[in-house]
UniProtKB/TrEMBL annotation:
<dbReference type="GO" id="GO:0008324">
    <property type="term" value="F:monoatomic cation transmembrane transporter activity"/>
</dbReference>
<feature type="transmembrane region" description="Helical">
    <location>
        <begin position="7"/>
        <end position="28"/>
    </location>
</feature>
<dbReference type="InterPro" id="IPR036837">
    <property type="entry name" value="Cation_efflux_CTD_sf"/>
</dbReference>
<protein>
    <submittedName>
        <fullName>Cation diffusion facilitator family transporter</fullName>
    </submittedName>
</protein>
<feature type="domain" description="Cation efflux protein transmembrane">
    <location>
        <begin position="10"/>
        <end position="216"/>
    </location>
</feature>
<dbReference type="GO" id="GO:0006829">
    <property type="term" value="P:zinc ion transport"/>
</dbReference>
<dbReference type="InterPro" id="IPR027469">
    <property type="entry name" value="Cation_efflux_TMD_sf"/>
</dbReference>
<dbReference type="InterPro" id="IPR040177">
    <property type="entry name" value="SLC30A9"/>
</dbReference>
<dbReference type="GO" id="GO:0016020">
    <property type="term" value="C:membrane"/>
</dbReference>
<dbReference type="InterPro" id="IPR058533">
    <property type="entry name" value="Cation_efflux_TM"/>
</dbReference>
<keyword id="KW-1133">Transmembrane helix</keyword>
<keyword id="KW-0813">Transport</keyword>
<keyword id="KW-0472">Membrane</keyword>
<keyword id="KW-0812">Transmembrane</keyword>
<dbReference type="InterPro" id="IPR002524">
    <property type="entry name" value="Cation_efflux"/>
</dbReference>
<dbReference type="Pfam" id="PF01545">
    <property type="entry name" value="Cation_efflux"/>
</dbReference>
<feature type="transmembrane region" description="Helical">
    <location>
        <begin position="190"/>
        <end position="208"/>
    </location>
</feature>
Length: 297
């Protein structure tokens, strides 16, 4: 998760540097799309802070009220981030664009807007490259989309989506803002704002979907479950594994429950020894499995 923090810090620095300049440029040039971009960067800045807070909270040690720890805090705050992108980022940008289309204002000299956009593109592009490199380290040979679907750490791909949406939004704004000024069609500036908002809404849906799945108790992959089943049934005391239940408490912690049918001739002490043996085997093979609960059938 240290690698993820690196990409989060880079995104935080980029968004903090450019949010204020976007607002200033948008205010002086009457550009709706620049104001939307300022909102976008501000929301992204808050999102990075919430992700860092979620990572910190998820590291808290277990206590009486939370015997399995606080790992799901990361999933909760990732879901909050997706809601913020939808509501504050996407919603406000679309609203700002609609207002500008209804009551268009002729844009003043957009020179400073272009300066800010080019600098923003450099900062956001750099942050995107860093986040892509860090996420690439976690893919383990999987295709990009498959690695996102199978990832149990939303902080790893959330920054990639945010930075990607930011770069796409900047390109849209640069093109439509230039057309708006050149052809003297101020409504195009509002259209750019709406497109930026729709991009953010699309990204928020993807992030909310993945965060919700993890928050609701997503378990280990079917192929991993099958490997654990075969591993358990290699033990001489086991007849068969009747059921395997699991859930991710955090990207680095799995709770596993097994219902096992043991040999009939075993006494209580022998079953206890078999449970300890199986638990140790699973933990050695799968370090992410921190809790193994075994129920004899």
């Amino acid at each position: 998760m240290a690698n993820n923090r690196k990409s989060i810090y880079s995104a935080l620095a980029a968004n903090l540097l450019i949010a204020l300049t976007k607002f200033i440029a948008g205010t002086f040039t009457n550009s709706s799309s620049m104001i939307s971009e300022g909102i976008h960067s501000t929301v992204d800045t808050v999102n990075q802070l919430l992700l860092l807070y979620g990572i910190k909270r998820s590291k808290k040690a277990p206590d009486e009220l939370h015997p399995f720890g606080y790992g799901k805090e990361l999933y909760f705050w990732s879901f909050v981030v997706s809601i913020l992108i939808f509501g504050l980022g996407g919603g406000l940008s679309i609203y700002q664009g609609i207002l500008h289309i209804k009551e268009p204002e002729i844009m003043k000299d957009p020179f400073w807007n272009y300066i800010v956009l080019v600098l923003s593109l450099i900062f956001e592009g750099t942050s995107l490259i860093i986040s892509l490199k860090e996420f690439n380290k976690t893919r383990n040979g999987l295709e990009w989309w498959d690695s996102i679907i199978k990832s149990k750490d939303p902080s790893s791909f959330l920054v990639v989506f945010e930075d990607g949406a930011a770069v796409a939004g900047l390109i849209v704004v640069m093109i439509l803002m230039g057309m708006s000024h050149y052809f003297q069609i101020p409504e195009l500036d509002g259209v750019a704002s709406i497109i930026v908002g729709l991009i953010l809404v699309f990204v928020s849906f993807i992030l909310a979907r993945e965060s919700r799945s993890l928050l609701m108790g997503e378990g280990i992959a079917p192929e991993t479950r099958e490997k654990i089943k075969k591993l358990v049934e290699k033990d001489a005391a086991v007849i068969r594994t009747k059921s395997i239940l699991s859930t991710y408490q955090s990207p680095e912690e799995v709770v596993l429950m097994l219902i096992i049918d043991f040999e009939d001739h075993l006494d209580t002490e022998e079953i206890t020894q078999a449970i300890l043996r199986i638990r140790g085997t699973i933990k050695n093979e799968y370090p992410l499995v921190h809790f193994v609960i075994i129920q004899p059938e």
